[in-house]
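REQUEST FORM: STRUCTURE PREDICTION
Request ID: SP-0412
Submitted by: Lab K.M.
Chain count: 1
Length (residues): 177
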Amino acid sequence: MLTLLIRTVIIYVIVTAAVRIMGKRQVSDMQTSELVITIIVSQIASLPLEDAERPLLNSLVPIMMIVAIELLVSLLMMKSRKARSLICGHPIIVIRDGKMLDEQLRLLRISREDVYSLLREKNYSDESDVKYGIIEPNGTLSILTDEDVSGDGIQSEDLQEQMANCRGEHCSSAGSE
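STATUS: Completed
RESULT:
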């Protein structure tokens, strides 16, 4: 029993350290790759707790390897816009000039009702007051009004490219994943 308690404390410390090394994010703010890494690490960490005969090192080495890979991938995403877009996706315009873009909703596999719910969370009663509604890579909805796009805002290059390629009900492949 004492061995199990010691192993549990060691796994707890290692997994907590691994999560801290990977960065401080809430689950809702995680990129897809970060969520996958978290699930894999938790699965690997549970193995030595389930089987006391399994050497602890057989789980600690893979956890540290996965954390190292995640750090390298994070560095790559910081350095390369293409890598970031490939791994995490990019913002997708779902509302343009107050109208929902059904083609983009189908691409993202979300319903109008989902977007209406996200709009209500942002205190918008409908899409008509929205110049651009953008689903961000982490799944949140960003709203841009006419005021937001009239000046030099903080829109990223990929979003500016999408806005330039969005015409009427159709957004070209720059708005596709």
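NOTES: Residues 2-86 form one domain.
Reviewed by: T.R.
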